[in-house]
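Readers outside the structure-tokenisation community will struggle with the description of the input data as it stands. What matters is that the chain and its backbone geometry are given together, residue for residue. For illustration, here is how one protein appears when written out as sequence plus structure tokens:

…
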Amino acid sequence: MRHRSGGEFSSPVTFRTPAGGGIKGGHHHSQSPEAQFTHTPGLKVVYCSNPYNAKGLLTSAIESNDPVIFFEPKRCYRGPFYGDPHKVPTWNSHPDGEVPEEYYSIPLEEARIVKQGSACTVISWGAMVHVAEQAIKNSGIDCELIDLQTLVPWDRDTVVNSIKKTGRCVIVHEAPKTSGFGAEMSASIQERCFYHLEAPIIRVTGWDTPFPHTTEWDYLPSPERIADAIKQTQEE
């Protein structure tokens, strides 16, 4: 719109959409299509992970003069998902479940450091932030966990500074690995952090084929798969 109008017009519209799996929605209703939109110049792409950043990010998205695709993980509507479908808490006792009634916003180009750490940087967004958090606990390794929040434009400074500190990186998302947004992040990190990396960047993602095993839960990255990837970075 800006290009075609010579900068005279903008497109201040926000599209909200549920996304992701983990609710037994099947292959028609459990997709994570964020990479299709991050590839489109001019679109901002946001992926919240909890009620608090959902309101803050949505406020900034609505106030933006550019078009925004705003993804909401279906699995997190009820509460944080830690990887066990039989134990899904509500937001009632979670600090990020408290949403102030008054106005506040979260900048669209700002990632959130969920947990400080020094041994490995784990990057995720949406429901997988909570699964990654559980995986870090299970691994017993001092990881830094980053909730990317906005995929386009993503917070390169926070990510790069973290990896310069830890020297290792695991990227987690539930979309398929091939051409997933984690591939773009991995390439960008490699370009900026090559001499700081002590091990290859590892991506833990959904499979490249729909539900290859028996249930939808086998498709989603699990705490076990993520923890194994974290431990692998320590072996290099």
